[in-house]
Amino acid sequence: MSINVSILKSKTDLFNEWENYINKDKNPQKIRRNILESWQRCKSLKVNPLGGKSCIIFSGEELNRKLMEKEHLLNIITPYMQNIYKFVEGSGFIVFLCDEEATVLHVLGDYDVLEDFRAGSNFKVGANWSEKYVGTTSVGMVLAEEEAIQIAGDEHYCLEHKKWTCSAVPIRDPYGNIIAVLSMTAGSEKVHCHTLGMLVATEMAIENQLRILEATEKHQVTTKYHQAVMESVSEGILAIDREGLVTFMNESAGRILLYDYKEAAGKHITEIVDFRPVILDVLKSGEGYTDKEFIINSKRGRMHFVKSAVPIRGKDGKIDGVVDIFREIKQVKRLVNQMIGANARFTLRDIIGNSKELVEAKRLALTAARSSSNVLIVGESGTGKELFAQAIHNASGRMQGPFIAVNCGAIPRELIESEFFGYEEGAFTGARQGGRPGKFEMATGGTLFFDEIGEMPLDMQVKLLRVLQEKEVTRVGGNKTIPVDVRVIAATNKDLNKGMKEGTFRKDLFWRLNVLTIPLPPLIQRTGDIPILAANFLEKFSKDHNVKYTLDPKTLEILLSYSWPGNVRELENALERAVNFADDNLIRPQHLPKNLLVKNRGLQRSSQVISLEKAEKQAIIEAVKYSQGNLSLAARILGIARNTLYSKIVKYEIEC
């Protein structure tokens, strides 16, 4: 390709070398290495060396998108561009900003120079000033070399640009990424090395501001995170300086201390509470503590906390302040109860059966739930005493509180007092550091269930009676009384009247507990519930084994004729054993425990045994009642065919 340069009055050595490179592909000798590499790239990209205005122009939505993406950056850099332009205004300079893709975003300059540059290079906002469109320029070189550069006159690749000298610097974000290019352009005769120096100084100022803004934004985000964390925790958090002045209080602390946390900063800690704060001692001693229990008497009443105090030291090692972290003991107990499962799972709906004896027991339980009086549940082992206790709790006004069950017969005699009432640190050998609350404290706000109350030693009966009367406890090894708000439900399978006569159970405790009595019938007295109970248990086991189990009619006859000394618990156990031995979904007699198959087994409780026909009739009545007249459902419950059920209904003259 041959170019006509006759319009030029004179040609420099570099221009001649450029001309030879374009026409004869002869590498120039008097050129910087990076400029030559740019020329080589331009040639391989087939950039027109006679042009200079082949750039693409972004406009409309595409340009608006680019400007919106860089709006924040433009707001920061524009004032710096204006300051630069003030120094060169009227001297033929253009100052412009490109994004990291070389698209022109903002331009400042003398009007006549802008018009000249626009006419010769198609330069304006939206023009893409990358090397592949406009050849070697300072903008393209910055993006290629990632460093500040100045391109003078004949170093440009395109003829149209050789009358200009341009300088440019990369603008980097705080992470080192190029996010923009700042450039100055003027006629070749008006630019010298100080132009690039001015741009580099501006670049440093811009990047420093970006780092400051980034650090400020991070600090603000961190501060917001800290505030969110402090306000989301349920613990009260309060900090004081070395003078005892509050420097921080979160919302939870204000709620616990009944003080507006927004007004606390700058106040002395003694202005906020009406008792002497323990953290003032930490401020003096410099010794903190973790999870220590405090009972404080204030004008607002007794306050019970678990607290931690952390001394804050300066560089000199001296105490600069204290951070106090505290939580009301009732919140701690609620959390502990949730973690150890101190809650009631069963309701009155979970108690299966329609016999009149059981219906009466459920009626009494509902009456008890509506009352705050103590309850005594009496029944044989396996009749569901704890089930009733949980149901009463869940139907009462204390249902949101803990439900704690204590088996009086399972706690060693030497530990029973500390289990019930708790202990202080050092109360006895092996006592846990910091002490431990007892069952009464843990159950505050809820229900405390004493199972097998008849097994309680006499000396503990005296202490239990005192707590029930005074509604406060004293921990073993302590001297402070702690108020407790507990609803007591007791249960026994023993004859407490006999125990009172024999001197093993105190009469005064009996009458304190026996306000509302609920007798639970043994299973032998409600055999009509056996089919329903069996169906319920089999449904549960069917879900566990993913098999639909049913009862053989002969198996049901055995279940109805057995005396069930272990009551409902024994029935469940027998059926669970049966499903493990069943080789299909039908529970046959041979799958039952052997003791159920012994002839005349029921004679051991002959005074309570009823005839098989009477039991069968009662079972059918209960099944029909439970299924609300749906004979297909009733037949499935009983494990017999629908036609068989219908025949028996006719036989026993049962009304549906």
Task: Describe what you observe in this structure.
Helices cover 43% and strands 18% of the residues. The protein is α/β, with parallel strands linked by helices. The chain folds into 4 domains: 182 residues, Beta-Lactamase; 96 residues, 2-Layer Sandwich (Beta-Lactamase); 179 residues, Rossmann fold (3-Layer(aba) Sandwich), CATH 3.40.50.300; 129 residues, Helicase, Ruva Protein, domain 3 (Orthogonal Bundle), CATH 1.10.8. The strands form 6 sheets. The protein has a 5-stranded antiparallel beta sheet, sandwiched between helices. A 5-stranded antiparallel beta sheet has the order 7-6-10-9-8. Helix 20 packs across helix 22.
Summed up, the domain count is 4
What is the terminal-to-terminal distance?
110 Å
Which strand order spans the largest sheet, edge to edge or round the barrel?
2-1-5-4-3
Q: Which residues sit in consecutive blocks of at least 5 with pLDDT less than 50? A: 1-9, 600-609
Mean pLDDT: 85
In terms of quaternary structure, the protein is single chain
- The amount of helix comes to 40-55%
Q: CATH class of the largest domain, anyone?
A: Alpha Beta
Number of strands: 21
Strand content: 15-25%
Tally of individual helices: 25
Output the CATH topology of the largest domain: Beta-Lactamase
Q: What is the general shape?
A: elongated
